């Protein structure tokens, strides 16, 4: 942290020793902070004009999104302002007791609620802090929008950013026992409050919530570790230390209640882990090679009138519309109508539909957890650019009970970091020493392999292949010896060659099960979904099902847009460019990263998505189909495709079951003339790649 740009830790300690408050006088490299320039944002503008750029490291936690949605000089202005706010809060320089808000009136209003047992002396001060930050943030953003866009409106993201800061001063936890239902005098919710109170008396010890302050719970929602779960203790603590409310004991029985969302989690683009499959097999089944499963050969035929509107009222996804799957009910969260603290919900939901489906927050299908079997997952190559975000996603999954990380470096640190996350999976990290591979792999149910090294300057593709092929070979040997029954997901490139390498190693060890060996090609599907959605204007790419077949590199990747569900109309002048973008999307990422990296995050997402599908199938969920690179002769329906393609390995939609690959769906035979030309090119490239992988094991290169 550069002491010339902001006050360092040493300076702050020295500052606390001085009785006089710090002044922003422009001396010692500090920017001049002069409120005379027009209030907070005027002062910030003057600071930004001096070229002061705050260190982004100062913004952590709730402050991390201070510049969300802003760029250029306006981003700098807002950054600068909040850097000053953080500094003032840390040094207690600002006396909020002199705040202009009517604190006495605030306290009087608080006491008006008969259910409030006690009020901390600092509660009004904290409320004033929160109000000041909330109002100032909105004022800043309104000014910035007016300057940048010539408009004077605030967007939902602006309000959410302000809430994210002000919510850290949530005084309600200190003054209102939220577990007690209340007939608030300032609202019309008395009848519901009385009912809640009656229910509470009938169920001693039950966790209750103040009516109107939070959305109603739903039994299928994820556990809530938030503030709505606080309960009253016999000696409820009224003394508050510092800025934040005291900790309270959580009721173990309270977990399982829904997370109380302050705003739409999609605002910051967070991943919601939908339980949505890509290709349906229930109801209308896809054809098998004999045609027995689909005598009319209607797979891929789209009936515009066949779309289904589920309980939530939103258009059905492909899987719902064509499979007739029993999706969990979409429980909705009604908008709040009460005043006071619930204003934050009303602000953010006012521009939304009347009800928000539960899927907006989290989808947790109970039928995916029917099996009581404990699941151990292993990430081999967990410290790399793909391995770390992949491990994070797996750690957050409720389908995993134990997560073992293995790599040649850094895994103990990565595992320790992940172990602090409040999710069920127990996390351990292993290095090669002390039989680390054996310890990591033993008892594994699923092994995901993103291991490998990136291409370095002066390194040929053959050099890179030899190194990564050797890494995969050794890891697969470890799986064969210590986890022979595990599902194996190979991410390490080139997948067209590394999967055949894995198959040969397993064959030689007598442990080859073609139904449990997969090459992860999901990223190609994800890209096809995303790019097509951009063209046709589909807001949610995962509502599209697009089969991508062949291999996992360049021209071996063949998207079959004619079999997309629902059907899509790609303009002829955009088709070639779209196909090329799906095939060479990785180059787009490398170029955007200036050669300093590749598609690590999107690949981690794709790897997790496929692993999640495998685990859902293991847990008993049926009707899961995902494209993946498999050994054709070992899976039902594969022989017919092998005759057409002339290859033993091929990526195609595969139905997954508890034992792995259940059957392959033939989409190749339905390709149109344009797609058949692409497939012919793919077949040639695949044969070369596959032979190269097999040769590496049969005749290994000299070390």
Automatic annotation (TrEMBL):
<dbReference type="GO" id="GO:0005829">
    <property type="term" value="C:cytosol"/>
</dbReference>
<feature type="domain" description="Core Histone H2A/H2B/H3">
    <location>
        <begin position="93"/>
        <end position="163"/>
    </location>
</feature>
<keyword id="KW-0520">NAD</keyword>
<feature type="region of interest" description="Disordered">
    <location>
        <begin position="281"/>
        <end position="312"/>
    </location>
</feature>
<dbReference type="InterPro" id="IPR036291">
    <property type="entry name" value="NAD(P)-bd_dom_sf"/>
</dbReference>
<dbReference type="InterPro" id="IPR009072">
    <property type="entry name" value="Histone-fold"/>
</dbReference>
<dbReference type="Pfam" id="PF00056">
    <property type="entry name" value="Ldh_1_N"/>
</dbReference>
<feature type="domain" description="Lactate/malate dehydrogenase C-terminal">
    <location>
        <begin position="521"/>
        <end position="697"/>
    </location>
</feature>
<dbReference type="GO" id="GO:0006099">
    <property type="term" value="P:tricarboxylic acid cycle"/>
</dbReference>
<dbReference type="GO" id="GO:0046982">
    <property type="term" value="F:protein heterodimerization activity"/>
</dbReference>
<feature type="region of interest" description="Disordered">
    <location>
        <begin position="1"/>
        <end position="39"/>
    </location>
</feature>
<keyword id="KW-0560">Oxidoreductase</keyword>
<dbReference type="InterPro" id="IPR001252">
    <property type="entry name" value="Malate_DH_AS"/>
</dbReference>
<dbReference type="GO" id="GO:0030060">
    <property type="term" value="F:L-malate dehydrogenase (NAD+) activity"/>
</dbReference>
<dbReference type="InterPro" id="IPR010097">
    <property type="entry name" value="Malate_DH_type1"/>
</dbReference>
<dbReference type="InterPro" id="IPR001236">
    <property type="entry name" value="Lactate/malate_DH_N"/>
</dbReference>
<dbReference type="InterPro" id="IPR007125">
    <property type="entry name" value="H2A/H2B/H3"/>
</dbReference>
<feature type="region of interest" description="Disordered">
    <location>
        <begin position="180"/>
        <end position="227"/>
    </location>
</feature>
<keyword id="KW-0816">Tricarboxylic acid cycle</keyword>
<dbReference type="Pfam" id="PF00125">
    <property type="entry name" value="Histone"/>
</dbReference>
<dbReference type="GO" id="GO:0006108">
    <property type="term" value="P:malate metabolic process"/>
</dbReference>
<comment type="subunit">
    <text>Homodimer.</text>
</comment>
<dbReference type="InterPro" id="IPR022383">
    <property type="entry name" value="Lactate/malate_DH_C"/>
</dbReference>
<feature type="compositionally biased region" description="Low complexity">
    <location>
        <begin position="188"/>
        <end position="206"/>
    </location>
</feature>
<dbReference type="Pfam" id="PF02866">
    <property type="entry name" value="Ldh_1_C"/>
</dbReference>
<dbReference type="InterPro" id="IPR015955">
    <property type="entry name" value="Lactate_DH/Glyco_Ohase_4_C"/>
</dbReference>
<feature type="compositionally biased region" description="Polar residues">
    <location>
        <begin position="1"/>
        <end position="20"/>
    </location>
</feature>
<dbReference type="GO" id="GO:0003677">
    <property type="term" value="F:DNA binding"/>
</dbReference>
<feature type="domain" description="Lactate/malate dehydrogenase N-terminal">
    <location>
        <begin position="376"/>
        <end position="519"/>
    </location>
</feature>
<comment type="similarity">
    <text>Belongs to the LDH/MDH superfamily. MDH type 1 family.</text>
</comment>
<protein>
    <recommendedName>
        <fullName>malate dehydrogenase</fullName>
        <ecNumber>1.1.1.37</ecNumber>
    </recommendedName>
</protein>
């Amino acid at each position: 942290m550069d002491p010339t740009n902001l006050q360092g830790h040493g300076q702050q300690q020295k500052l606390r020793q001085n009785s006089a408050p710090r002044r922003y006088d422009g001396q010692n490299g500090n920017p001049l902070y002069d409120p005379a320039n027009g209030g907070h944002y005027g002062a910030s503008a003057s600071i930004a004009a001096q070229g002061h750029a705050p260190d982004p490291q100062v913004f952590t936690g709730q402050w991390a999104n201070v510049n969300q949605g802003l760029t250029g000089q306006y981003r700098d202005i807002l950054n600068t302002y909040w850097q000053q706010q953080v500094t003032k809060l840390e040094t207690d320089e600002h006396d909020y007791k002199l705040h202009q808000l009517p604190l006495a009136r605030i306290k009087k209003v608080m006491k008006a609620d008969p259910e409030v047992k006690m009020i901390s002396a600092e509660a009004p001060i904290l409320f004033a802090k929160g109000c000041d930050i909330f109002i100032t943030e909105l004022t800043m953003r309104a000014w910035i929008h007016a300057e940048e866009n010539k408009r004077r409106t605030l967007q939902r993201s602006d309000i959410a950013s302000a809430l994210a800061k002000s919510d850290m001063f949530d005084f309600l936890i200190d003054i209102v026992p939220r577990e007690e239902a209340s007939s608030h005098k300032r609202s019309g919710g008395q009848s519901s409050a009385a009912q809640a109170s009656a229910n509470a008396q009938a169920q001693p010890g039950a966790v209750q919530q103040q009516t109107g302050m939070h959305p109603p719970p739903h039994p299928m929602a994820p556990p809530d570790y938030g503030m709505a779960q606080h309960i009253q203790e016999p000696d409820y603590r009224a003394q508050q230390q510092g800025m934040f409310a005291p900790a309270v004991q959580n009721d173990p029985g309270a977990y399982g209640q829904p997370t109380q969302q302050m705003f739409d989690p999609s605002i910051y683009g967070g991943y919601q882990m939908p339980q949505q499959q890509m290709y349906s097999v229930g109801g209308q089944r896809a054809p098998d090679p004999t045609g027995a499963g689909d005598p009319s050969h209607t797979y891929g035929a789209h009936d515009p009138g066949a779309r289904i509107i589920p309980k939530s009222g939103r258009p059905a996804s492909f899987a719902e519309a064509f499979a007739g799957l029993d999706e969990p009910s979409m429980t909705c969260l009604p908008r709040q109508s009460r005043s006071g603290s619930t204003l934050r919900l009303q602000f953010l939901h006012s521009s939304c539909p009347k009800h928000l489906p539960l899927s907006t927050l989290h989808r947790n299908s109970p039928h995916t957890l029917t099996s009581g079997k404990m699941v151990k997952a292993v990430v081999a190559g967990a410290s790399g650019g793909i391995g770390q975000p992949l491990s994070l996603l797996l750690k957050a999954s409720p389908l995993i009970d134990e997560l073992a990380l293995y790599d040649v470096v850094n895994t103990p640190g990565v595992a320790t970091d992940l172990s602090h996350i409040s999710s069920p999976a127990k996390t351990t990290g292993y290095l090669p020493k002390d039989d680390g591979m054996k310890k990591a792999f033993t008892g594994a149910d699923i092994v995901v392999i993103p291991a490998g090294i990136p291409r370095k300057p002066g390194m040929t593709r053959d050099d890179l292949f030899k190194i990564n092929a050797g890494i995969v070979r050794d890891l697969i040997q470890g799986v064969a010896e210590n986890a022979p029954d595990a599902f194996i997901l190979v991410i390490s490139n080139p997948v067209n060659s590394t999967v055949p390498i894995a198959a040969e190693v397993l064959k030689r060890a007598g442990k080859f099960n073609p139904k449990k060996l997969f090459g992860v090609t999901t990223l190609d599907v994800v890209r096809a979904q995303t790019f097509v959605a951009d063209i046709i204007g589909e807001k949610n790419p995962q509502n599209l099902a697009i089969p991508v077949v062949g291999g996992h590199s360049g021209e071996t990747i063949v998207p079959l847009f004619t079999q997309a569900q629902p059907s899509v109309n790609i303009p002829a002048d955009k088709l070639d460019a779209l196909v090329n973008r799906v095939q060479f999307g990785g180059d787009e990422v490398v170029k955007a990263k200036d050669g300093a990296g590749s598609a690590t995050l999107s690949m981690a997402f794709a790897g997790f998505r496929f692993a999640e599908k495998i685990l859902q199938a293991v847990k008993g969920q049926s009707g899961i189909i995902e494209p993946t690179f498999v050994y054709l002769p070992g899976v039902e329906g594969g022989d017919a495709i092998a005759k057409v393609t002339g290859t033993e390995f091929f990526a195609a939609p595969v139905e997954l079951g508890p034992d792995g690959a259940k059957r392959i769906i033939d989409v190749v035979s339905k390709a149109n003339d344009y797609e058949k030309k692409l497939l012919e090119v793919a077949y040639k490239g695949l044969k070369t790649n596959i032979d190269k992988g097999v040769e590496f094991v049969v005749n290994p290169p000299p070390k």
